[in-house]
Amino acid sequence: MKIVCICDSDSAAGFRLVNISTIAVSNHQETEEAFKKVLNMPDVTVVFVTEKVVALAREQFAQICMEPEPVFIEIPSQSSE
Questions:
Q1: Rg of the chain's alpha carbons, rounded to an integer?
Q2: CATH for 2-75, among 3.40.190.10, 3.30.470.10, 3.30.260.10, 3.40.50.10580?
Q3: pLDDT of residue 1
Q4: pLDDT, average across residues 33-59
Q5: Facing residues of 60 across strands?
Q6: What do you get for the CA distance between the two ends of the chain, in Å?
Q7: What is the C-alpha to C-alpha distance for residues 65 and 17, in angstroms, rounded to an integer?
């Protein structure tokens, strides 16, 4: 079982401190590429996605959440507004 977090670069450092792999993104295209990347990683079972990242690609996130695996979970961003 592997956990990955797709997040902004500010949030990535905290997840790496607790040994969670991260994919830092900053725009819509990078977010879509990160989604595709984790969907093609057979050992990934849980994907945390920060709310800032979800806002970059909400429609794609909603579609991906319909899939049984991996489980995508939206979590608060480091500096939620």
A1: 11
A2: 3.40.50.10580
A3: 84
A4: 96
A5: none
A6: 32
A7: 26
Taking the C-alpha atoms of residue 7 and residue 62, their distance in angstroms, rounded to an integer, is 16
* Overall residue count recorded for the chain in this entry: 81
- β-pairing, 2-7 vs 21-24, is parallel
Q: Which pLDDT score is estimated for 59?
A: 96
Show the CA angle centred on residue 67, arms to residues 45 and 48, nearest 5°: 45
The residue extents of the domains of the chain are: 2-75
User: Residue 2 is encoded by which pair of tokens?
Assistant: 């592997």
Q: Which residue has the tokens 């500010």?
A: 10
Confidence of residue 79 (pLDDT cuts 50, 70, 90): low
